[in-house]
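wait is this the right file?? whatever heres the structure
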């Protein structure tokens, strides 16, 4: 199996994918990519996914938009320079005022999963400063992306 096929296989359940080169400056004193950098990789995939969903910084209806509630990461193998990662994102569970996003970072050099992550996104009214329900239109887009 070629490296490209292996990466595709590892990201089969992740419809949104971004390719990110590992930068020399991503590494820490221990000689591998610093743990905080994985969260930036996930952020890049999240913002790409928001684009697929038609979400800008604030949704046009009533000043409601996404806000990051929490994030976690399960580190599997260390990344080092030079490498490239493909980071996949997908929608998990959808609730009344939130949705889960799942991430996977795959190393091209190793042909293996470097990290898996999750985040909880809350729909937030920037006008009132409180949680807001997931709109019917957003829920439909989330379900469509989830079903790919």
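ok assuming it is, sequence goes like this
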């Amino acid at each position: 199996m070629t490296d490209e096929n292996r990466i595709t296989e590892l990201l089969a359940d992740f419809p949104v994918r971004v390719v990110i080169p590992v930068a020399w400056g991503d590494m820490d004193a221990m000689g591998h990519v610093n743990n905080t950098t994985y969260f930036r990789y996930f952020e890049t995939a999240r913002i790409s996914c928001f684009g697929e969903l038609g979400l800008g910084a604030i949704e046009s209806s009533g000043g409601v938009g996404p806000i990051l509630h929490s994030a976690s990461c399960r580190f599997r193998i260390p990344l080092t320079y030079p490498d490239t990662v493909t980071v996949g994102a997908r929608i998990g569970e959808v609730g009344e005022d939130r949705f889960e996003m799942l991430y996977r970072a795959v190393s091209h050099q190793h042909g293996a999963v470097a990290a898996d992550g999750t985040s909880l996104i809350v729909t937030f009214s920037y006008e009132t400063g409180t949680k807001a329900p997931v709109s019917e239109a957003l829920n439909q887009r989330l379900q469509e992306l989830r079903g790919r």
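The radius of gyration is 16 Å. so i think its the right one actually
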